[in-house]
Amino acid sequence: MEAPHSELWSRNFGAPVTGLCLTADAALLAVACRNRTLTVLTRDCRPCWSQHFADELTCVAISTTPCVAAGTQRASDGSGTVSLFDADGQALFSVPLASAPYDISLSADSERLVVLCQDQSQHIANRSGSGYELRQVEARHLEPAASSAASSHSASLLKIRERLLSVLNQDAGIVALHELPRTAVKCAVSHTGFAGIVALEDGSALLLEGDSLRQCETTAVVAAPGISSVAVSGGGTAVIGSPDGTLRLLNRQGKPLWACRAGGEVWAAGISQDGSIVVSGCTDGTVKLLVNHAHDSYNQHIDLLQMNAEQLADEAEHRDAAEALLAQLGQTGLIEYAVDWLNGGSLRLSQADREALAIKLLAEDVRLFPSHCTSHFLLAQAYQKRQEWHLAARHFTWAGQDDRMKLKSFTLAGESFLMAGHHFAAKSAFRRARELTVSEEAKKTLYTLGRIHQEQGSFAEAQKYYEVVFTLSPDYLDVDARLQHLRRQGTQPEGLRPSDDKDWYASLILELLDPAAQRGFTPGTARATQLAGVAEQRGRLLSVIAEFALDKADKAADAALDYDVAAYMRYDCSVPEDEAKKSLELVNMLDCLKHYGPFRRSLDIGAATGRYPTLLARQGIQAFGVDLEPRAVEYARQKTGGALNPDFHQGDARALPFESTQFDLITCMMGTAAHFPRQDFSRVMSEIHRCLVPGGFCVISTWDIECPHLTYLSIYSHEQKELMRQNAISRGEASEIARAQGFAVEEIRPLGLLPESLGYELDLQQDGPARIRNLLDMDLALKAKFPSLHGQMYMLIIRKT
Q: Name one Pfam family in it (predicted).
């Protein structure tokens, strides 16, 4: 069995669920919502009737006859009403109360109704002939209560206030008092009144059991990060709802049996008398009804088997009985419970036997159900104890696919990979612990590159790529099998030596193009032409890197500059992920100069530190820079020593301080376009068009708002990034605006297609002679494989017609 519970149905009621109750046999369910609607439906989700109230619903109860009682509160004065409806939804009576009810108890036969009000008054309605008589009873010795609960088949009532639990009879007389270890926030009692639960403010709970709860045994439970709802069955099986959206089931000893996601905060929970049906109601309006396979009779059966196994004197019989019970629990899906019992200390097994039985149980579970992330985590812990690091890392990685376990699982996976000597996988796992989801396109590209390296004999490189893919998705294609094959292989095979100058990118292009029939296109088709164009572009860009010796550029800034220009210094001496973006932009910009040039006179809008005007001036171009911020202009002039070329000006891009048709190249780089108010982008484009000569080019490099891994530059604050997000113009919008202003769109180049965290893991962000080439190759590999993919930036190249 995949899980110890199965969903019968799930329905959204359109408003937060504030209360629910069900009959002892779960044949009927009443749901109260914040929109003041009460709905009664059957076990199979068929509506019986609904009622809309003028005031807010505060509590609801249901009997087996079936009648439904509801309490409401008037917002204006805090008064309330109590109403009783028959099986058809017809009102039997409705009585106003001076204080709003906060709990209602309705006997199974609907003969008796008990109402507890916020002013601590208590009212009892008894059937009299064809109607009901309501009377107020004295609530002796009671302090204002935080919550209460009442049983339907008996007169047991629970009230909690701070650290005191009161058990009351039908006349509000105190029959038992229980001091609690911490302040109580919620309580519930079973239909029969022989079991109860009290939730405490620290997220723990107490289970109560005994004759009408007068003299009861309590069991402490560490339950959840906060408790928002509770319910308990006749046999003591408890349900706990939490603000994190989790629904948990505990046995009568307080041991966790299972947990599942219910939706939003679980404000209401219920359980049938025999524990076979569990229901939850959430703040997102969702109500779920589950069949619980770990019901009261099953739990009693397991209790008996556990006791018998623990008492067997013969060592072999003791172990066999434990193994048989573990298998039975596994078949029901109670894997975590089984492991807890195995390690709980009540069995007389050696540590080696415990580990072996746990591994056998968990390995079978993940074999049958690979998505059981908790089982993967427990199995990884077992392998970790044995110092079987590779297996531990593998299953911690699987466990990390559950977002709730991601941080802990990937951190432990990283530690295990380190112990196993797999450093790239360790680095990837540590980053994965704090990273957002990586796209399928990135996984496919990394896998393809790993396969190409493997086929070419570069096994260390192949393993590096495979390890990163494995930490992203352990079940991705055959990556696990390929990794295991490489690890078994160990060293390089005889006679197979990888070439130092092997062009793996060319192999990627060939892999995509050949054999053409298997790829669905033939040479000369649009796709083949597109790939050939990427390969040709790569050749040009590599020649740019070599010609300009880009990896040897001096990035040092003048440390003597004033603190006022610290932001510009941070831009000049930025962190590796920023440098990666700047490098990709730079090499593509230089390619534009060579491919679309030559150019005579240029203007850079948003010149900031003067990076591009300085670069263009060095190429023999008369270069100008303009920036709205005077301190940027001052910084750029100081940096260039006051040279006449480049020449920096203070000015607004919406009204450029230059005559018309002055430039044959205008640039706007590194996201400057996202600094313009969105509504002003057309105006800026108009000014660029005015200042360009006919046939002149404009290159705009800016942030691509459609990129799923967009991070901007690290120098920006959260507020600045949000403003740029609001200002950002998509590739499509920018092209339309450019055409409307009289430009022809020559090209749109995506930049930064690989998430930078993966660049770190593959050492693509590190300084060194191959850094820019490696970044470029990865970008073009993604572009070749996925032509429509969005990168962190795009470069729009347009020409004035």
A: WD40
